[in-house]
Amino acid sequence: MEKTALITGGSRGIGAATAKYLAARGYGICINYHRNEQAAETLVAHIREQFSVPCIAIAADVSDETQVVRLFAEMDELIGPVTHLVNNVGVLFKQMKVTEMDAERINKTLTTNVTSYFLCSREALKRMQPGCAIVNVSSVASRTGSAGEYVDYAASKGAVDVFTRGLSLELAPQGIRVNCVRPGFIYTDIHADGGEPGRVDRISSQIPMLRGGQPEEVASAIAWLLSDEASYVTGSFIDLAGGR
Ligand code: NAP
Predict the structure, then answer these.
(1) What value, to the nearest 5°, has the Cα angle with vertex 185 and ends 83 and 110?
(2) How far is the CA of 88 from the centre of ligand 1 (A)?
(3) Which of 36, 89, 196, 232 could form a disulfide with 8 if both were Cys (CB 3.0 to 4.6 A apart)?
(4) How does pLDDT run across 198-231, given as a tens digit for each residue?
(5) Could you tell me the pTM of the whole model?
(6) Residue 87 and residue 137 in contact, taking contact as beta carbons nearer than 8 Å
(7) Which of 34, 56, 26 lies closest to 44, judged by CA?
(8) Residue 62's closest CA among 30, 89, 93?
(9) How far apart are CA 186 and CA 190, in angstroms?
């Protein structure tokens, strides 16, 4: 089977590292992003030059159903239907207590981090055959709860964990595998969105391995779960959190 991967939120951070990791293993790559066209196009140029695989970028807000349907249709046209999906998109907002959160913020977190995973999986499954696979990107926050920082984000990742379990069971008889990674504290721009760019360094002394993680250390686990080497693995979770 020709392998074509879609990585949502794939233009930066863990998604970008995953795109490169999969390209190095011969996958055609579709990078989804939201607004930062320059970051996406720079990554596309790098992947085409470095790995000589087909690679495109498509802008779409994956929390929006109409845009998700268009994303998959455009991908069909430009690079071929998805065989491997990485539901990687994730947002968090300024650190605050639950008592300070309003509905707009909570709903934005949930639609981006959870609804998009449902919608992208639904569209992918219209195209997938036995042997195809999905990896969802959750977080250790689903275990810790992120008190005082972003409980809305942690709750969205709890939903991703349950979504992984349920979808994996629905699809197991069809030979389509669904797994999940739960990163801990990884050096990406997401922490600046929470208002604390230096968060990973602040927390590193509390991590058993005494350091934050690199995006590539998450990408390798995603790639393994997608690969045929994980052919008997479904509904499973890999925590990449330095022992947390
Ligand atoms: P990041 O560096 O902040 O990158 C976010 C990506 O998501 C960008 O490509 C961004 O595109 C895209 N995006 C944002 N909103 C979108 C939307 N509505 N539709 C489509 N794309 C959208 O993120 P990251 O840290 O690599 O995180 C990746 C995943 O890992 C997330 O699910 C996150 O929750 C999870 N995670 C991260 C950490 C960590 O420490 N970094 C820890 C645990 C879990 P634009 O730039 O165009 O907006």
Answers:
(1) 60
(2) 7
(3) 89
(4) 999 999 999 999 999 999 999 999 999 999 999 9
(5) 0.98
(6) yes
(7) 56
(8) 89
(9) 9
Residue positions counted in the chain? 244
Q: Tell me which residue has its CA closest to atom 16 in ligand 1.
A: 34
Domain ranges of the chain: 4-239
Mean pLDDT over residues 133-137, rounded? 99
Largest CA distance in the chain: 50
**Phi and psi, residue 70, nearest 5°:** -65, -40
Please work out whether the CB of residue 188 comes within 6 Å of at least one atom of ligand 1: yes
Architecture of domain 4-239: 3-Layer(aba) Sandwich (3.40)
Ligand 1 atom index nearest CA of 62: 19
57, 8 Cβ separation under 8 angstroms: no
Q: Which residue's CA is the nearest one to ligand 1's atom 17?
A: 61
| Test site for ligand 1: of 74, 91, 161, 214, most ligand atoms within 8 A of the Cβ | 91
